[in-house]
Structure formats: structure tokens, C-alpha cells
Amino acid sequence: MILSNFNKLNITFCGMMGSGKTIIGSKFAKILNYDFLDTDSLIEKETGKSINQIFNDFGEAYFRDLEEKFISKILFKKNYVIALGGGVMTSLKLRKIIKKNSFNIYLNVDINTLNKRLENSKKRPLIKNANIKIKLKELYIKRENFYKQADLTIKNCESINDTINELKKNFKIYDKKN
Q1: Nearest one of 103, 138, 117 to 17, comparing CA atoms
Q2: pTM to 2 decimals?
Q3: Of 9, 104, 112, 146, which one's alpha carbon is 20 to 30 angstroms from that of 86?
């Protein structure tokens, strides 16, 4: 279907925490009639632990190993829309598989908007007990070049509908008029 034009198996969304990968990805999957998968939810389901518990009990490096283990398998599925965790793109192994098997979309959101979206979040271990804005800037600096290697960059600072409409335009999906 849509991905045959790009010789890809699936669509992935990358970007910072709070960029909207899960909400935009799940809505876009419905439009395409694809299955949707959120990698953080997958890891929680497979381990029986929350992301916070994994970070607290085993640390970030262990979590990144879990990401590689589970995500490297799902990237070979076909006709999926996959919301990647914010740090996935820091893995060279996963970047190579993403590049080969998926059309990767970077949801770009400015730091101030991310800060507002995340200021009351209790589920993000990397910003827990931290100055959120400073931590977001630090993470963005580390990850920016990886995100920018995506096949498509979409701003997601306005409404969900605006972002979905931009995706539809890029994928040449037109609503049928009755």
C-alpha cells in the first residue's frame, strides 16, 4: 500500500518525550488501517514493570538494552505504525534497522511546548526530580542529530488535527468527498 512507494515495511515516529508520538501515531495508524504499537508500552507489557520501575531497579543502560531487544524484533513487522521511545534513536543498531525497514517521521516540538506538556508528568524517569526545561535541552542536544536523520520532519506544536493533516498531505491521503 502506502509504504511500497518507499520500499519500507512500517512507519515509525521518533522525537522527544512529550512530542506526541503515541497520540499522533495511533491516530495515523487508524487512517492507514495499520496496527499501532508503542514501544514503551510493549516493554512494560513484556517485563511486567513500568518504565519508572525499570529505571529505578536496573538503571537506564538496562532499559536501553531492553529497547534494543524488543524493538529490533518489531521493526521487521509489516504495516505497523510504531511510536518509538524518545531515546531509541541513540542506538546505532536500532537506527540502522529503522532506516532500512521503516519510514521514520520526526515529530519536532520546541522545548517550551515540551516543558508545558511534561510539567506534571510522573511517568518520565529522565525528568523525575530534575529541572524539566534544563533536562529537555540536555536530551535534545544529545539526540537532535539522530532525530534529524528521519525521512520526514513534522512540527507538532499546534493541534493534533493540524499534525494529522500535514501527515495526510505528505502521504497524499485525501479524504473522500461524498
Answers
A1: 117
A2: 0.92
A3: 9
Amino acid at 135: K
Q: Cell for 175?
A: 479524504
Amino acid at 12: T
CB atoms within 10 A of CB 3: 18
| Residue-level pLDDT, tens digit, the chain, 178 residues | 456 666 788 999 999 999 999 999 999 999 999 999 999 999 999 999 999 999 999 999 999 999 999 999 999 889 999 999 999 999 999 999 999 999 999 999 999 999 898 887 777 877 787 788 898 999 999 999 999 999 999 999 889 999 999 999 998 887 765 4
Q: Which residues, 6 or more positions from 157, have their beta carbon under 8 angstroms from its beta carbon?
A: 109, 110, 113
Domain that holds residue 154: 2-168
142 within domain boundaries:
yes
Task: Let me know if residue 177 belongs to a domain.
Answer: no
List the one residue out of 92, 78, 94 whose CA is nearest residue 39. Answer: 94
Number of separate helices (H) and strands (E) present in the chain: 8, 5
- Here the CATH number for the domain that contains residue 138 is 3.40.50.300
In a domain, 174, yes or no: no
Number of compact structural domains in the chain: 1
Place of cell 488501517: 33
Look at the chain and count its residues: 178
The contacts of residue 138 (CB under 8 Å, 6+ apart) are none
